[in-house]
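stage 2 :: seqdesign
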């Protein structure tokens, strides 16, 4: 099978985006496409794949995302900006209501974060504190700044669904080895956390800046995770570290976004949707491999504009 793909990223969280509006593959095949395209030893590499899906009565277009391991999460807010760019360009609209797996979001082209950086504003939520839905068992119905002894005796986590599951711990300094240790416990899908979780450590750097590092479910450490940045901004408000509705800078390993969260749990992020190149590639579904990549157009100007941030 030969696919057209767009290699793109939001804050360095990188994806192969596929216009799937006229493609009919079953979920198992998309999972296999995700494993093939995200393999960093293969010709493309990435944290996941994004599917632009068609309109319905409510939404101008939709997004599906598959993680590198082939699992399909509920949302992806860095990926949504890339899908928004593709969907807005495809439909010719300046803004849109977008269908996600289990929820909706609103997107619009925003003023460029910096010269030449295509920027999208996205609003998603509401964030939910109900962990019975994950499920996360044995820690009560809500987890707010609480020790989860099965993960660490020292850290205090807040559990938030965006609606994908996030465990957020504010720390003085991100300890990456500890983040990986805890991320891997969750990745093992223990009986008390069968659907796993994304785990983030967050530094409050000043009254206008957070730094977020995330071990993502189905992927591992990534440069950035948009839903984690949204969750972290909401938890900063919930725990009184920052006022709700203040727009702050959320830094990450791949760059930054501007973010705000309301008390009702709606989060708004404004950040890049950078296209690196477009091309075609062959997928061997039986083997789960990608080969014969042909890049048809490169965008060094977009890569350079983002690097300057
Ligand atoms: N990187 C994404 C989140 C992708 C999904 C996540 N790994 C999960 O399984 O929930 C983002 O930018 O939000």
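stage 2 :: out
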């Amino acid at each position: 099978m030969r696919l057209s793909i767009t290699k793109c990223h939001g804050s360095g969280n990188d994806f192969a985006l596929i216009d799937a509006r006229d493609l009919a593959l079953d979920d198992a095949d998309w999972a296999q496409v995700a494993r093939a395209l995200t393999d960093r030893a293969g010709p493309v590499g990435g944290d996941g794949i994004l599917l632009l899906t068609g309109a319905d009565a409510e939404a101008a277009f939709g997004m599906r995302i598959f993680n590198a391991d082939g699992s399909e999460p509920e949302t992806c807010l860095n990926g949504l900006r890339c899908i928004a760019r593709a969907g807005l360009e495809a439909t010719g609209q300046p803004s849109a209501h977008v269908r996600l797996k289990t929820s909706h979001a609103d997107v619009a082209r925003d003023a460029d974060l910096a010269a030449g950086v295509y920027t999208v504003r996205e609003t998603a939520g509401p964030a939910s504190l109900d962990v019975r839905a994950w499920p996360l068992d044995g820690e009560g119905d809500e987890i707010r700044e609480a020790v989860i002894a099965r993960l660490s005796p020292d850290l205090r986590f807040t559990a938030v669904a965006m609606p994908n599951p996030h465990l957020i711990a504010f720390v003085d300094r991100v300890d990456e080895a500890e983040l990986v240790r805890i991320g891997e416990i969750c990745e093992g899908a223990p009986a008390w956390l069968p659907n796993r979780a994304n785990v983030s450590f967050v530094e409050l750097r000043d009254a206008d800046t957070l730094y977020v590092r995330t071990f993502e479910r189905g992927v591992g450490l990534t440069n950035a995770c948009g839903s984690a940045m949204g969750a972290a901004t909401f938890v900063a408000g919930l725990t009184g570290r920052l006022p709700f509705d203040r727009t702050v800078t959320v830094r990450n390993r791949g760059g930054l976004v501007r973010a705000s969260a309301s008390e009702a749990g709606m989060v708004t992020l404004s950040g890049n949707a950078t296209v690196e190149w477009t091309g075609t590639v062959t997928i061997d579904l039986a083997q789960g491999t990608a080969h014969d990549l042909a890049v048809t157009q490169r965008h060094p100007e977009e890569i350079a504009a983002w690097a300057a941030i």
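stage 3 :: structure notes
- Helices lie at 27-38, 77-91, 176-187, 226-238, 300-307.
- Residues 13, 67, 73, 76-79, 164, 198, 216-219, 222, 225-227 surround LBFN2T5F (CB under 6 Å).
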